[in-house]
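Example (one chain per record):
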Amino acid sequence: MNILHLARLEFERPLSSRTVIACTLLLAAIIGRSYLCLDTIQYDLGGALDGTTAIDLFYIAINDTWCAIVLIPITSLVLCMSVFSSDAATGFDQLLLTKVADRKTLWLSKAIAVALRCATFVAILAITLAIVDQALYATPLPTSRVPEWLAYSGITDEYLLPGLPTYSLVPETWNYTYFILFIWFVESIICTSVVLFYTGITIRSAFPALPVLVGFLGQFIVLQLPQLFADLTFLLDPAGAAERAGVPVRGVVVDALCLGTYAWGAGLFQTGVGGPALLARAANELPLDEMAPQQVQSLLRGYSVNSFATLIGVVVTLLIISIACIARRYALRRTRKVQEHAATTERGTRP
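Predicted structure:
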């Protein structure tokens, strides 16, 4: 058996009824959460979104921390949790190890199957959100033009949001259709890295739901860490926190899995955007000569965002840990199988 054949078999493995029900409920939760975020954005913008399209709801979903850090990865985990755990429970993988030439072929095929399932789920999510929004509100289909409510000039010094930074703006010169495809690809990789990480660290367990339980706990903790850091900052430096109160803060490393913490059009290592624009908006309410120097410096720093190097680093780290855990597990299983075969041969019995 070659690796692609095994990957296809794993990808086509039927889902249980409980898995389908759980994924349906989680998908409904993502849709509901996306509309809540849409209402918040509409409130900040004072009404309907200019130039909105049906696919915008998907973009809003992956920019929301609850959806991007908890709901979407957990749904991917539910879809993929049986890829490794079912074999651990039944020992089917040990049988397959006698049929493949290299043990790497087996676990690599499973990893590919996880990636395919994650990519399929993200695509289904995007299509479902677009269909629901189009059916309920007759929202236009997307075009190559970036919607007005999402667009900015592409110059990061002019990056300016109307309210709290709950989503990321897109350079107006970009092709919106290609951008959504790119977002689908990036989100698929993020989901794959998260799924492989939690299945990798729990691969020794035969309990199928353990990756989901550990994953939910881990992702929920990650979701709460930025607020914890903000609280600690206020406790350690209340004066400095008060000075920065008017500037929305983003870009904590632990929220790197949420694409809403990045600024599209920024450099690979850039961690701040929109400083001059924020300062100009503040100057409309309070003259610069009446501002404290610390406040001016804080505004000039602009929005704090994650760098794209951070995203690459986090994803690569998760994949390295995952591969190490999975490869070690299958190496141990192969060793045991060889030892059992040798023992039965020495006794003169058929293996």
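Caption: The first strand starts at residue 151 and ends at 152.
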